[in-house]
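Many introductory courses stop at the sequence. We go one step further.
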Amino acid sequence: MLQTSCPKCKSVIESPYLNELSSVKCGQCQEVVTVENVFVATRGFTIHREDLNNRISRYKKLLREV
């Protein structure tokens, strides 16, 4: 799931479409939030989307070696 946070109320906004949106409405305070600083989150793992994109080839290489 992709996540970002609302700068007004600090709540977490989750959507699988954050990568494709330029703005989204916060479900808590109804503020229209510009989508930036997107994180990829799973059960026990959260990483900034740009860090994941930068490291994905390294992770693929490690998986091939295993």
